[in-house]
Amino acid sequence: MTATFLRKLSSALILLWVAFGLVACGGFLPKSNDNRHNQPLSSVTQAGLRNMGSSPGEAMVIRIFKQEQTLEVWKRTSAGQFRMFKSYEICAYSGDLGPKVKEGDRQSPEGFYTITPGLMNPRSNYYLAFNTGFPNKFDRVHGRTGSDLMVHGDCSSRGCYAMTDEGIAEIYGLARETFRGGNPSFQLQIFPFRMTAANLAKQASSQHLSFWKDIKEGHDLFELTKAPPAWDVCDRQYIFNASSGGALNPMGPCPAVVQIAALAEKQQADEMAFASAVESEAQKAARIAAEAERQAAAEAAAKERGEAINGAVSGLFGGLGSIFGGKDADVVPVMSGKPAPKPMPRLQRP
Description:
By secondary structure, the protein is an alpha+beta fold. It contains seven helices and twelve strands. The strands form three sheets. Strands 3-2-1-10-5 form a five-stranded mixed beta sheet, with helices on both faces. Strands 4-9-8-7-6 form a five-stranded mixed beta sheet. Strands 11-12 form a two-stranded antiparallel ribbon. β2 and β3 form a beta hairpin. α6 (about 210-225) crosses α7. The termini are far apart. Residues about 10-25 have low confidence and may be disordered.
């Protein structure tokens, strides 16, 4: 009995050692584990942060690109600028391109959001999660409604952005360490697609075009400065890096903005590229329409020729039927049905 007990005890100790080892190096904890929100970042993740000149406690930014189904984590480096640390594939999001408008529309939000520790959900039914903060100041001034719009695990979406459990575990851990590093929040930027002139031109007829151009300014500022822009809302639109020090009235006039030359140049170049791309898209649409019209005309002509040929063939065989098997009243049957007369005997020659 003693030997059996010792074997069982040894096995249990080995399992505990393995489990502890996994947790110590950032091993993935199952959903049933109540401490999954505290699982450490893996040694690989920590090494990756060091290699880019950052650390777990540094500030971070998350960017989401809906159409590309991509979530990016950016971390501030020792140089003071942000660099992309890692890109994650989004398993699923709900709805189409465009912002969430009302509760129950099954749309995933778009815009700029501020994530605080209070928005983190360590006991999510979808492994781990953080709330996007929808509706924000912009959403509220436009009367948009919705609740519990999350970035979570479980790879299933009902108006949220769903990641794999392993993916959200690492993202959650990075956010947790950012807060522990003394950062009170991090910025979440959500875009419908990569904000290029070509992509906007493809959506030129969308009702959301002006909104997308509005948030594109914040996107471009981040691209140029590699720092998250300060955002607020005035005149029912986003404003970035406003000169005003206090919170703005979302329906009031907008204050002056210190415009950087690089942004003005980019916006001008992008507007020209947008106009050119819209024209190209229109020409492409015209070519497709002309080709469709040509194809339809060819099909109609082919159908007409086919009907004409079928009519001619039908008439030909109808005429032959009249000749060979018809019942024309003017045609006297060759066979009357009466017995043929007996032939006369051959004449005898003398």
